[in-house]
Automatic annotation (TrEMBL):
Record keywords: Chaperone
Annotated ranges, domain J: 3-68
Domain of life of the native organism: Bacteria
Positions of the UniProt region annotated as Disordered: 73-95, 110-148
SMART domains per UniProt: DnaJ
Protein's recorded name: DnaJ C-terminal domain-containing protein
CDD domains noted in UniProt: DnaJ, DnaJ_C
PROSITE patterns, per the entry: DNAJ_1, DNAJ_2
Biased composition (Low complexity): 129-139
Amino acid sequence: MRDPYSVLGVARSASEKDIKSAYRKLAKAHHPDQNPDDPNAHAKFAEATSAYDLLNDASKRAQFDRGEIDADGNPKFAGFNPGTHAGASRGGRNGAAGFSAEDILKEFMSGFGGQQRPGGGGSGGRSAGGAQWDPFAGGTASGAHGGKGEDIVVNATVSLEDAHKTSAINVRMPSGKMLSVKLPEKVEEGQQIRLKGQGSPSPYGESGDALVTIRFAKSKQFRKDGHDIRVDMPIALYEAVLGTKVRVPTLDGSVELSLPPGVDTAKSLRLKGKGLYGDGDLYVNLKVVLPKGGDADLESLMRFWRDQKPYKVRD
């Protein structure tokens, strides 16, 4: 990976807030779900996520700034040159001159805080991440590459009804895989649900995690106001004058609401405890709807009112 500061477009002196803000912008711009026709989006998104993971970890960031690890989180084995120890007897694995295998291991590991593997033997050790690492083996173990795959961020759009009922929702991963995800109780906008092992795979160890970010869908009939819910209820003019009963939708199903004669449509009617999660209330906004196309009798009545029974509604 390139220099993580360059990837995120921030200075080396950037604050945690600056780094987080930069990552959010890049993640939003390059998220695969938002760029289905861009074959490079996934790579750009993964690179930004990897850069953020490193710089967001205070310990790893400090190690990187000191030159102890590279941009991929791999230890740097700078300063070791077996040829400089001339004159000492050969020993240890791979015929390293001047030092035993245990001595060489100590020199390799001292640069980035590693320790000799318990039990001696000198043929292996543990990286900063804790995974076993053998500097003399032919391959590269998971610890040298961080082991775990990268985490991925996935947006999930949730209806107010599903959130209220703590339902399970279907979430599509960038790979196309569909997962059923149980919503936590009283889930909030922007909250993340971690799905262990559902992130990017790693050839060296376990897969990363998927971070499902919750977004509330825009409802056709409900308006969210914190945990309060608002709904518009159309009524006829004669219902407002004479009173009636109407069926009002709620997140728990419809309920019957009695409107008194001459109900004040300027005020919302409150149904206590009928808001989101039962913490908020439901507010019903009454809207008088006149007949489409007009009505001659109604117009005649209104002229009579205007001329014979006017009343003041404005200051």
